[in-house]
Amino acid sequence: MQVAHGVLSAHEIPPEELPPRPLGHHLALTIYWLSNTLMWGALLHLGLQSRLGDWFGEARVGYYFAIIGFVGGIVGTASQIVVGAFSDRSLHPWGRRRPYVVAGSILGIGALIVLGAARSFWPFAGALVLVQLATNAALGPFTALLPDTVNPREHGRASGFMGIARLLGDTGGVILAGQLLSAKDLGNTAEAQVVAFHNDRILLMCAIIAGFTLLTMIGTCLAIKERPLRRRPQATAWQIVVGSFAVDIRGNPDFFWLSLSRAVTNVGFYMFLATIPFFVEHSLRSPDPEGTAMLLQLPGIAAAAVSSLAAGVVSDRIGRLPLVFGAQFTMAGSALGFALARHLGDSFVAIIPGGLAYGVFTAVEWALACNLLPRGESARYLGVWNVSAVVPQIMGISLGGVVGSGLAGRAPGLGWRVDFCIVLCCCLVGAYFLKFVRERTAPRAREPAP
Questions:
Q1: pLDDT of 117-135, one tens digit each?
Q2: Buried b / exposed e across 265-302, counting CB within 10 Å, b at 16+?
Q3: Is the dihedral of CA 67, 71, 74, 75 positive or negative?
Q4: 225-282 pLDDT per residue, tens
Q5: CATH architecture label of 19-227+237-436
Q6: pTM
Q7: Can you say whether the dihedral through the CA atoms of 104, 298, 286, 397 is positive or negative?
């Protein structure tokens, strides 16, 4: 069954002919990304670990963390690809992307409130899967707004701004979760009182995130203007669903080698981020793991914010591949520092290069991918591109949890150090796969007519 591709409408301006975008346009592209990363910064860096820690001990918490990571990641991956394919072919008068951003955001807001209200593992896990489904249905079409509306010559600048938004969201999420969930002021109270405290605070956290998501969704959809498609290839809904997974690997080898490199590296990145709270609690034996993990991550996120925008702009001039390659090796060094850390001070030293590497990587790889996208199917292929983040998220969280808890019986705290050794290997293997990627040079601006 063949599904026609190449849905660029004749009345659309080709990306290479788009005019330079003002600062306001770039900022409008970042605000929704800010709320999405705020949510996952709060949940993935601290929220999920804290909530599961209320219900399970070290020997079991990693396995349950793996369950929710695996199921939620699979649902999120499929949601992005399929909904992205529908948005590529949408004839809605609002444009191809914004209707899906609105619908997915509203569903995600409802699921967030259910997540915050859950008081046991299985309702919590079910709500998290719904959050993954809805937010990824919005995120897939949203990410296509960058290649839809920005000239390839400005992709580095645009992705630098998006990298800043992601890092600000990470920072805000870590601070929000750390401030709300830290139970140090309760003193040596009974475990049941700590759980009751977290019950109230996790709901408040989810409500704050839901409100911010609503505001940024409205702002993005009002500020970004789209040109609706006038025609599209004939295809049934089932053909679109099936065809959304029919990607042309041979025709786009550079895109897929880059995706593979990103996927392997992201296994390490997600394991790195998810392991820190468990490492602080079980390896460093902090009496306040939520508060300490928050403080530990802030310098790294600040370093990432410094490097992200600068790397995006520099990559427009010197190319993307050298910067991505350097970031992967720097992150490997940071992971080694964590694996060998004996005190909290050692971890503070190791987090800085990791943050710098994360900022460079997240900014530059996005611009590089946008330059390699097939024309007319940007949302669908960006859905495939996001597989190289979502599937590694599943693998990183699952593998990190299983190794961390699996070795707890042999030596408490050892498994979380082994996780950082795995991170190091992932970054080096990801760097190796970059040797097969050929970067495209963005077309030069046309000379003005005399």
A1: 888 888 988 899 899 899 8
A2: bbbbbbbbbbbbbbbbbbbbebebbbbbbbbbbbebbb
A3: negative
A4: 777 666 655 655 555 555 555 566 677 788 888 888 988 998 988 888 878 888 888 8
A5: Up-down Bundle (1.20)
A6: 0.64
A7: positive
